[in-house]
Design goal:
- There is one protein chain.
- The protein is α+β, with helices and mostly antiparallel strands.
- It has one domain.
- The chain contains two helices and 14 strands.
- It has helices at about 105-115, 155-175, and strands at about 5-10, 15-20, 25, 30, 35-40, 45, 55-60, 65-70, 75-80, 85-90, 95-100, 120-125, 130, 145.
- The strands form five sheets. Strands 6-5-12-11-10 form a five-stranded antiparallel β-sheet. Strands 7-8-9 form a three-stranded antiparallel β-sheet, with helices on one face. A two-stranded antiparallel ribbon has the order 1-2.
Length: about 180
Amino acid sequence: MQVNALYCYPVKSMQGIRLDQARLYRHGFEWDRRWMLVDRQQCFVTQRQLPALAALKVAITDSALVLSHPQAGSIEVPLETPSSAAQSVRVWQDDCQAQPESPQITEWLESALGSAAQGLRLMRFADGFTRAVAEDAFGHQQAHTFLPTVTPTWSPQRLLCMRLTRRLVKKASMRCP
């Protein structure tokens, strides 16, 4: 098996980041889909509704998520958990808990994307909240995810992890008497 590229998508429905290496957790890559935009009804927003999201660039530094746009410049979102209270948000049919990032991010989004972004807020998946994957989607194992559209069953990183684990177990059992 050969891995040609690894990508992380910190903000749901925005550009990804090509990675040289990644930390893999039960829910996927570190920082993958930890944030999303929601509308006034607290429902997530994707490029299907707002194609201009494709113009936003995303980066992660040691201390911040960095969003940038050719006309609006860039803004940093601290990686530390915001102090705001968690709120209920909707991702497809799932009710999740997420914390709003600062109002300055909302202002910046409106500046970058224009009137189509009015009322959008950047939300971070709340620490301590788990979004369980349907039991029938992952066999007998329990699985959790943050904000991806697909379950970990289908995520490339999960499949890669499962394949590597099987290969390691197979090699280890060959060495044991």
